[in-house]
Amino acid sequence: MARNLKLVAEKITREFEVKGGRITALYNVNLSAWEGEVLGVLGPNGAGKTTLIRILSTLLLPTSGSAKVMGFDVVKEPEKVREVINMASGAERSGYDFISARKNLWFFSQLYGIPGDEANKRIEELAEELSFKEYLDSKFYSLSTGYRQRVTIARAFINRPSVVFLDEPTIGLDVMTAMSIREFLKRKARDERITILLATHNMPEVEAICNRVAIIDKGRIIAEGTPEALKNTLTLCAYAIEIKPIPVNLGFLESVEGIKGYTMKADSQRGTATLQVVLEDEELLETVLFFLSKNGIRVLNTWRKEPTLEEVFVSYVGRGFGERESES
Ligand SMILES: Nc1ncnc2c1ncn2[C@@H]1O[C@H](COP(=O)(O)OP(=O)(O)OP(=O)(O)O)[C@@H](O)[C@H]1O
Ligand SMILES: [Mg+2]
């Protein structure tokens, strides 16, 4: 393993027995992360993100394949791995309600055997960095969702881990809190060379803080690179088309050759929808507009879009995140 490679996963497959058969939550997943890198694992609901994090953090065994964190094998040396990692999830909001934020962090510091003076110092530092110093002595239950999540994020760094796994760390948070957590993570990776693996279905989050991103869909990595590189590989063009009324079915678009994919966001209050299409050639826009009008859909506005990770996803998968999530 190269010296600065902190995490390597090779051909990870994970199946689950469910009623009526097996499902493959992950299939042949290869992944690596460098020192000081924020690696995004971006995928819609059910893509396999949490399963991947659970395997890499030794909470779940893979069905096959292997992974090493800081050179330690997650299957054969789980206790070694646990010493050098930490993790947090946005869904858990964990903490002991009836003790203060400080005592919560103290409790976790003691699970890692951090000497008292050192633990106190780290708690103060993390509270400063995540701007919750004035709440350190408030009972955990009395904190707002956002402050509780700041404490949860602090907990994930209390043992000075080399690799941190974060599962949707800003889900359900207000914009300001999400921004300040993102800035904190970016600094930790850059200044302290901590490797962060961040699973999310939030594309702006990936664009804001990830050096590299692996896009995952139905258990498979479908694309990987820097957000910039992924967007630059799109020789395709993307258009947004504002339409009315909201179409019940856009299946007819699939028969148009050269459409790489589409996704639609409806605005039910206005009775309009924005259709995004990724096309092989800009001349196809005419054809799309023709098919829309043929199906009784009025076009209010059309504009070309700078590609974002959403278009990258649409061009690989054929559908948008939203549609994928409602499928599962
Ligand atoms: N313990 C389990 N038993 C059976 N199926 C499971 C189990 N854990 C996960 N799965 C299935 O594996 C697939 C991947 O799930 P996973 O939770 O890893 O996705 P995810 O990307 O984290 O999704 P989300 O964005 O909703 O959190 C899903 O189809 C899920 O239903
Ligand atoms: Mg998940």
Model description:
The longest helix is centred in the middle third of the chain and has 18 residues, at 175-192. Strand 4 (64-69) and strand 5 (72-73) form a beta hairpin. By secondary structure, the protein is of the alpha/beta class. It folds into two domains: 5-225, 3-Layer(aba) Sandwich (Rossmann fold), CATH 3.40.50.300; 235-327, ACT domain (Alpha-Beta Plaits, 2-Layer Sandwich). The strands form three sheets. It has a six-stranded mixed sheet with strand order 6-7-8-3-9-10, with helices on both faces. Strands 2-1-4-5 form a four-stranded antiparallel sheet, with helices on one face. Strands 12-13-11-14 form a four-stranded antiparallel sheet, sandwiched between helices. The chain is built from eleven helices and 14 strands. The protein is globular, with a radius of gyration of 22 Å. The mean pLDDT is 93. The protein binds adenosine-5'-triphosphate and magnesium ion (MG). Magnesium ion (MG) binds at residues 49-50, 167.
